[in-house]
Design brief:
442 residues, 7-stranded mixed β-sheet, Aspartate Aminotransferase, domain 2, 2 domains, globular, Aspartate Aminotransferase, domain 1, 4-stranded antiparallel β-sheet, alpha/beta
Length: 442
């Protein structure tokens, strides 16, 4: 190992020690590590509080347990798997369960566990004050982002009496923002404005932001829905809210609501950078999206949306009169099993083991980065992330195909990324480095 690599390793060990010390000194109100027996016991108790369609006389609900011919409730496959038992029982978590008045009563048991998951995420991870946040387990980041923008569009419509004329509203985000912003703009009939970023750092270009805001102002747009990235899926880049707000403040007539897209970084950044500023402690931020099917490794179709109390009323659908508490979510009916999968994972690790797991991925990524730096490879890597984007000039097509490197653009790629997930162990990284070195020009 070279002297520079040894020095970098020493620095990272010190950073790792310091970060773990910060995390271990944090207080977690709701998130405690439980034994598997305790977790399963809580879930079985919750299922027992839910409706049992076969024993109950209730006949007004358009639902049942999963089809018994295909999903037998007494199958041996279910032994030891409370997630599969929940899936078979098929609880409907329609609505929002952080407020019990908005919940269907027939699935109260598992809904309480979903509410506990939301408290862990909002209070313990995103540092909200107790009982100040509502939220629900969504289908993923796309739904969560659209939900937030829907809420804020409707808030503006009601507050400013726009009479459904949304021409004065725009989504503001960086060019690296997830494509769900494009979907939201299309679905909700509002303008989208993308801000250019510096190509090698992915930091927003503030001069371009000024030009975009000036253009919006001339178009009569004075209500912004600002979406800030907490680790983009391509680069792991993190936006600075201040970089946006310092420029927006120069346009005095602009009103802003802020949503954080933490679909990728929500379960990662708060543990590799416990002092990171994108939390509910910043009163300018009103909502977050997280994905549980990325870093948390829950089943696909599992995300989280959290928002300050008092705001979900703007997406309440009054016509859903047959739903207890009606419904303010985008998707409506959804499986309670997804919430149980998050509960099981979070409680199995607890906050400290989870932090160490994320830090281990960050360390593994840094070792890969250090070696690439020795070969003067052009790349993008954000401190504490598990993503490395390598410039196209440094990789061959064969290497891209063999290791499934993902491009920023399939038509004309400039960057190709590696994501160090749990399955990307040291042996895979060593093999990749050997193949990478072999394809470098002599």
């Amino acid at each position: 190992m070279s002297a520079s690599m040894q020095n970098t390793s020493v620095i990272f060990v010190w950073y790792l020690f310091k970060t773990i010390c910060v995390i271990y000194n944090q207080s977690y109100s709701h998130w405690k590590r439980l034994t598997k027996k305790e977790i399963d016991s809580h879930i079985i108790d919750a299922l027992n509080q839910n409706i049992n369609y076969y024993d109950s006389l209730k006949m007004g609900i358009p639902g049942s347990h999963l089809d018994q011919r295909e999903f037998a409730a007494d199958s041996k496959v279910l032994d030891g798997s409370t997630f599969l038992k929940t899936l078979i029982n098929n609880p409907n978590h329609i609505g929002v369960h952080t407020d019990t008045d908005l919940s269907e009563p027939y699935f109260a048991g598992t809904q309480k566990l979903e509410a506990q998951v939301i408290k862990i995420i909002s209070d313990d991870i995103l540092k909200a004050q107790p009982d100040t946040v509502d939220g629900y387990v969504s289908s993923g980041g796309t739904e969560g982002n659209i939900q937030a923008i829907w809420v804020y569009r409707n808030l503006y419509n009601e507050t400013f009496k726009l009479n459904m004329d949304y021409s004065s509203i725009a989504i503001l985000c960086s060019e690296d923002a997830h494509y769900s912003m494009d979907k939201a703009a299309n679905l909700l009939n509002i303008k989208q404005c993308k801000v250019a970023v510096e190509k090698d750092t992915r930091v927003i270009n503030q001069e371009h932001l000024k030009k975009q805001l000036t253009l919006l102002k001339h178009q009569g747009i004075d209500k912004l829905i600002l979406v800030v990235n907490m680790m983009t899926t391509m680069y792991g880049s993190v936006d600075s809210l201040d970089d946006y707000m310092d420029i927006i403040a120069q346009f005095a007539s602009m009103t802003v609501k802020v949503h954080v897209d933490g679909a990728y970084g929500g379960f990662f950044l708060p543990f590799t950078h416990p002092d990171q500023p994108l939390t509910f402690e910043d009163e300018r931020i009103d909502s977050f999206t997280l994905d549980a099917h990325k870093m948390l490794q829950a089943p696909y179709g599992t995300g989280i949306f959290v928002i300050r109390k008092g705001l979900l009323k703007y997406s309440l659908t009054d016509s859903a009169q047959y739903v207890a508490g009606m419904d303010c979510t985008l998707v409506g009916s959804r499986s309670g099993a997804n919430a149980i999968s998050i509960y099981k994972i979070l409680m199995n690790y607890g906050p400290y083991d989870w932090a160490e797991r994320m830090l281990a991925l960050a360390q593994r990524t840094l070792r890969l980065k250090n070696q690439l730096e020795q070969w003067n490879v052009k790349m993008i890597h954000f401190d504490g992330s598990n993503i490395i984007a390598i410039h196209r000039d440094f990789v061959t097509t064969d290497l891209v195909l063999k290791y499934g490197l993902v491009p920023d653009n399939h038509n004309n790629p400039e960057w190709l990324k590696i994501v160090v997930m749990d399955h990307v162990k040291g042996d895979k990284i060593i093999q990749f480095l050997q193949d990478f070195k072999a394809q470098l020009p002599v």
